[in-house]
Design goal:
Layout (H helix, E strand, L loop, with lengths): L2 H14 L15 E2 H11 L4 H12 L11 E2 L11 H4 L22 H10 L4 H25 L13 H4 L8 H4 L14 H4 L8 H16 L4 H7 L4 E2 L1 H20 L5 H17 L1 E2 L4 E2 L2 E2 L4 E2 L18 H11 L36 H13 L3 H18 L4 E2 L6 E2 L5 H12 L10
Antiparallel strand pairs: 1-2, 3-6, 4-5, 6-7, 8-9
The structure holds alpha-D-glucopyranose.
Length: 439
């Protein structure tokens, strides 16, 4: 095991640990982010299990009364972070949490996956069970919220209503849907992110203007989902979000079983979501999954790394998986043996691909981690090992960056980024030959 890399990863996490939760990055993201915390807990599971529990516990202190788990929880003063609690102004909704203040949107639901991971790797199973017992009702309320409020046609597919909800803020997926939002004049606010990292690595001002316009609509609707649904120009059934929900429901079923509760409702929802992803989001012509735009009532014909993540939840058939692997192992994504470190976030041959701009091309460690586990699940050992080696190699050579240039390898965005460190820990601690436990 690589002791030096383990020490270096732990040092990043220690720097970002506040005593209650882990900041994704001290300067760029100084509060608690929802899906970051779940990835971070997955890394802590192997070395600091009590801290992993605290991470998730802190996040859920921001949960709303209706189950919504917010994408940012502001535990202390918001400082100069933008947009802070005053911009979100969520307390106009009686369900919202005011202590701690939160944002009014969500992020991908990977939390039950993290909770189950904690239990699986726990040395003290009794303590792990106590924690699962504490978390189970909150996880259930979170998933219930999504299926109740975000699945208007009862398809088993939930929608996102803001690019930030996808976790892939400026992915080319959103270009077309966002173009429906007219913006006029210069930005009426100062962007702090552009002072912290190179603006060429970040979304544009036009993207930001649209992000903020959606927030303003949510405030006008007082965060009431039925009003938002009627008026929001951005309602998307996203592959990544629904895939993680499907796996999270499966893991919640396992949690229910070890707690002596009824796993069946969770299994039924997971099965419905898996079926719907296959029926509605599979792109037969290209061998990849694609998002569906509920406003335009059409698929979004844009191919991003998230289109392969259903492998993680065991959703594709073996024939579909074979086609996906051929697509992954091509010039569009990452052909083994080519000058390519790991799987980029966007089709390298598509218009607008960028090696450095955030979700428009760079390699993200969390997406590669999801793929690594998905490829293992389908027995694609060679490609899985390539991805695993990249997850270790990129941070070792270039540091624990937020994302990496797929060709040159160098890091971009924030340095000393928490989920990069945490997921490196996870792959170092889980044995090379280990196959992902069956669901
Ligand atoms: C960015 C990423 C998002 C992440 C957040 C905090 O907004 O796109 O996925 O959760 O930063 O790290």
């Amino acid at each position: 095991m690589d002791e030096t890399l383990i020490k270096a990863a732990l040092a990043v996490l220690d720097e970002n640990w506040t005593g209650r939760f882990t900041r994704p990055s001290a300067r760029l993201y100084p509060h608690q982010w929802s899906w970051d915390s779940a990835f971070i807990a997955i890394g802590y599971a192997h070395v600091l299990p009590r801290r992993a529990e605290q991470e998730l516990r802190s996040l859920f202190t921001g949960q709303w009364r209706n189950g919504l788990l917010p994408h940012i929880v502001f535990h202390g003063p918001s400082g100069n972070y933008f947009p802070g609690p005053e911009v979100w102004a969520v307390t106009c909704n009686p369900n919202a949490s005011s202590h701690p203040p939160t944002s009014g949107i969500v992020q991908p639901p990977n939390h039950a996956i993290a909770a189950w991971h904690l239990y699986q790797y726990a040395r003290d199973r009794t303590q792990a069970l106590v924690f699962l017992n504490e978390l189970y009702p909150r996880l259930k309320a979170w998933h219930d919220y999504l299926y109740r409020e975000r699945d208007p046609f009862h398809e088993g597919l939930v929608y996102i209503r803001h690019p930030w909800e996808s976790g892939m803020d400026n992915a080319p997926l959103w270009d077309q849907p966002l173009s429906r939002i007219a913006i006029d004049g210069p930005l009426p606010f100062q962007r702090v992110d552009k002072q912290v990292v190179n603006p060429a690595d970040r979304p544009t001002d036009t993207d930001y203007a649209r992000y903020l316009q959606l927030v303003s609509l949510f405030r006008t609707c007082r965060y009431e989902e039925s009003r938002i649904q009627e008026r929001c120009p951005f309602l998307i059934q996203d592959v990544l979000f629904n895939t993680l929900l499907c796996q999270a429901e499966r893991d919640l079923a396992k949690i229910a079983r070890v707690l002596g509760r009824d796993p069946e409702p969770h299994e039924a929802r997971a099965a419905q979501t898996a079926r719907a992803i296959n029926q509605k989001l599979w792109d037969e012509a290209h061998g990849i999954y694609v998002d569906y735009d509920l406003v335009a009532e059409s698929p979004i014909d844009v191919h991003v790394v998230a289109g392969f993540v259903p492998l993680f939840a065991g959703i594709p058939s073996s024939e579909q998986a074979r086609r996906m692997c051929a697509n992954l192992n091509s010039r569009s994504f990452c052909r083994l043996g080519d000058r390519c470190y790991a799987v980029p976030s966007y089709d390298k041959q598509a218009p607008g691909f960028s090696r450095r701009r955030y979700w428009r091309g760079p390699v993200w460690i969390n997406m590669n981690w999801l793929l690594y586990r998905g490829l293992q699940r389908y027995g694609e050992q060679k490609y899985a090992m390539w991805v695993r080696n990249a997850i270790i190699d990129l941070p070792r050579r270039y540091g624990f960056y937020e994302y990496y240039d797929p060709e040159a390898g160098c890091g971009h965005g924030a340095d000393r980024f928490s989920w990069t460190a945490a997921l490196v820990l996870d792959v170092l601690y889980t044995c090379r030959s280990e196959t992902v436990p069956p669901s």
